[in-house]
Design a protein that fits this description.
This protein is mostly beta strands. It is 13% helix and 36% strand. Strands 1-2-3-5-4 form a 5-stranded mixed barrel. It is globular, with a radius of gyration of 19 Å.
Amino acid sequence: MTKMLLLGMILGMGLLAPGQTPAPKDIHEKGCVRQGVEAGCLTVITLDGKTTYNILIAKNPPKAGDVIEFWGKEYMGVTICMEGKAVKVDKWTLLKMKCPLPPSPGR
């Protein structure tokens, strides 16, 4: 019995080997686009105001003040933006509404 338990623990530890990272999570949200603190950074604050994302978009990014819906994957690397959860956006659409959130302080 003890040998089986020990074997199970050893095999289980191999599944979570150091250096292995879990697959990036899919993210789908709607929110208000804001200019980030760092130059060139964009953030999206979800419509409920609870989550901030640092959106990474290579071509045709939305403008600060836009309200968008976006789909992407959690970005596992480091960014210079220092705000929110980084997301590599695969697709986004402009929503025809005004941001219901108050403007960010100091901007």
